[in-house]
Structure formats: C-alpha cells, structure tokens
Amino acid sequence: MTELEFPIECVAIDFGGTLASRSGAAPDGPAVASVLRAVDKWTMHPGFAEALDRAMRSSHEADRRCHRQTPFASVLQSAAGACGAVLPDEVHHLAAGLFEHLPDARIDEQAAGAVEVLAERGFRIVLASNTRWPETARRRTLRAAGIEHCFHAVVLSSELGIRKPHGEFYQAVVGEAGCPANRVLFVGDTASKDVDAPRRHGMQAMLVASVWDRSAPASRRPPLFEEVPRLLGVAEQ
C-alpha cells in the first residue's frame, strides 16, 4: 500500500488504462484514410493506409526512445511521401480535425465516478497523458463521460511535444497543479511513467491496476482508480 503524506491538493490522472479502456485508443491507417475520404472528400491513394500504419509505428517507436511526441501532421506527411500520395491542403489543421471523427477510448464508468467524487471533495484534477489525441478531441471524450467539468487542466504529450517520462512533462503537471509538487498525487497504471518518474520530480504517486484488469482478484493487483477516493479518505458516503 502506498504511504501518502497529507495534505494532498491535486490529483494528476493518467488516461489510457487508468480511466479508459484500450478500445479505440489507437486509430489505424484505414480508419484515418476513411475519415479523410468521408470528411475531406479525398480520393484515397492506393497504399496510403498501409503507409500510414508503417509511419505511425515508426514514429511511435522513435518517440518512445527519445520521449518526444511527433506531430500527427508530420506522420501524415511521412506516409504520403512514402507512397506518393498528395494530401489535402492545410495538413496541420487537417490532422487535428481528423480526431474529431475518430472514436476515442471509452472511459470506465466507475473511474468516472471516482473523478467526480475527488472533484466534489475539492481536489484540483489534472489529466496527464501520452497520446496522439489533441486536447479538443480528448475533452470531447471527457465531456461524453460527464466529467470534463471536473478537470482543471489537461496536460497531453500531443500538445507539449514531450512524452512521459520526460522531465518537462512532469514540470508542466506541477505547473498546472497550483500547489507544491509534494502535494500532488500522480495516479496511473504504469510504474515507470506514473510512479517512479513523478516521484523523481517531487510528487507523490500511486500505482493502480489497469481498468482491463478488473476481473483479477484484489489480492493480486494494485487498487483500481475507482478505489482512490477511499484511499484518500474521501469516499462517497
């Protein structure tokens, strides 16, 4: 069990695995090409979907090594160059708009309920996630789950250009927390990025089980995010 030091004023929360399932979280080449065709009336170039899959895999691997986030517009341009496709104009605007038409990961209902409890008890809530999704699209997902109003700030690698566990990511989280780092509790399902690295930057941290591990016996897994209010002593009465 994680030993916590009080007071805690802010809870920074990971997204994928912590609040949301994997489903829909990683759009593939055919899905993106389909949106381009439907929304921008683009005639799909043969081989573009496959080239985009390769470009996304390549950029993801490179980003993980250097803890940077390649802009999705650059990924689109790389795929187009590889197969000889000509993308519509204003590719940066296009890249952001694509995500408004792609299904995001589904937020777990119990996790959403825990976010609401924490917000009602006065904690400042910050979303802190590595993702390709722009802020507007991720806020749409939070809104659909009824919890966008709970978040004081959204810190995303897609907006920063920096991924966890890069130090600048955690500096941004602390900057949005509105309190000293030691009064921030970082919660997530990946030990290296959501526990070890936040602690190196002065925050407290708690490892939780991924939402898809719900069926595992409680004795064999960390707590789920839905249990965090109880562990902070503010569970709904």
Task: Describe this entry's structure for a reader.
The protein is an alpha/beta fold. The protein folds into two domains: 10-23 and 105-231, Rossmann fold, CATH 3.40.50; 29-101. Helix content is 43%, strand content 11%. The protein has helices at 29-39, 48-66, 72-83, 91-98, 109-120, 135-144, 157-160, 167-177, 191-200, 228-231; strands at residues 10-13, 124-129, 151-156, 184-188, 204-207. The chain has a five-stranded parallel sheet, sandwiched between helices. Helix 9 (191-200) links the parallel strand 4 and strand 5. The mean pLDDT is 92.
Overall geometry comes to: elongated
Oligomer: single chain
Tell me the β content: 5-15%
Structural class label: alpha/beta
Q: What's this, in brief?
A:
The chain is of the alpha/beta class and 237 residues long.
List its salient traits:
237 residues; single chain; 5 strands; 43% helix; alpha/beta; Rossmann fold; five-stranded parallel β-sheet
Topology:
Blueprint: E1 10-13, H1 29-39, H2 48-66, H3 72-83, H4 91-98, H5 109-120, E2 124-129, H6 135-144, E3 151-156, H7 157-160, H8 167-177, E4 184-188, H9 191-200, E5 204-207, H10 228-231
Parallel strand pairs: 1-2, 1-4, 2-3, 4-5
Helix pairs in contact: 1-2, 2-3, 3-4
